[in-house]
């Protein structure tokens, strides 16, 4: 696989692989092939068990799981680990939930690896912001309801590297809004969107563990959703979809996708 390398002096490569949202049937063939021949796999908490089961038995498996409040490895350590592993192994897979370049820090990791002189290749995955609404019967665009969609993080880390989200511009400029990591911040987000001119009747859907057997949905409006979250104890990880397309859930969710190979 690695040209010109010998067992004494290997030149490794890191593959930033998107695992998709959970259903193993949505994982790419390229990603699966890499898991079958990887020397090392460093994976995140949101990667589903059936996809981890595709990792070959000889590979070193490293859980870099990072979930809110339970940081098992900090980002800097993960990058150092990838650099170290790529110096002694041919195929290092960095496996991330959804798509690595969509709120997955894949861009930052790739920059740092390249700076360290390591070859990197990205293998896209299906992002949860597309797949979770789809499995809940919500198309993000529709000729009668929406001709624009915005993907936004609801978990803003205010700092010099990232500007804060301009909720006013998003509310005014996009007919469908898809929010990642927004559940804990929903009271603030809803208040911002109402202030920006959206009405309290605007439909919203929350989809938790989208495309997995335990997928759960909460459907409401901007006026009701905060109370619904409190009353139902609805938790992350979930995608929020806001806009008229959510109305389609009622008719389109009658046909449920079959989740392939999920036990
Ligand atoms: N790179 C990932 C996103 C990572 S950010 C992607 O492309 O999907 C983590 C957030 O993604 C979670 O807080 C949640 O909002 C969302 N998420 C990831 N997997 C999900 C799933 N199966 N169902 C619903 N939301 C999910």
TrEMBL record:
Keywords: Methyltransferase, Porphyrin biosynthesis, S-adenosyl-L-methionine, Transferase. Residues 13-225 form the Tetrapyrrole methylase domain. Pfam families: TP_methylase. The keyword Mitochondrion does not apply. Gene3D superfamilies: Cobalt-precorrin-4 Transmethylase, Domain 1, Methyltransferase, Cobalt-precorrin-4 Transmethylase, Domain 2. It is an enzyme of class 2 (transferase). GO terms for biological process: methylation; siroheme biosynthetic process. GO terms for molecular function: uroporphyrin-III C-methyltransferase activity. Its EC number is 2.1.1.107. It comes from the Bacteria. Pathway: Porphyrin-containing compound metabolism. InterPro entries: 4pyrrol_Mease, 4pyrrol_Methylase_sf, 4pyrrole_Mease_sub1, 4pyrrole_Mease_sub2, CobA/CysG_C, Siro_Cobalamin_biosynth, Uropor_MeTrfase_CS. It is a step in the biosynthesis of both cobalamin (vitamin B12) and siroheme. Belongs to the precorrin methyltransferase family. This is uroporphyrinogen-III C-methyltransferase. It comes from Thermocoleostomius sinensis A174. The lineage of its organism: Bacteria, Bacillati, Cyanobacteriota, Cyanophyceae, Oculatellales.
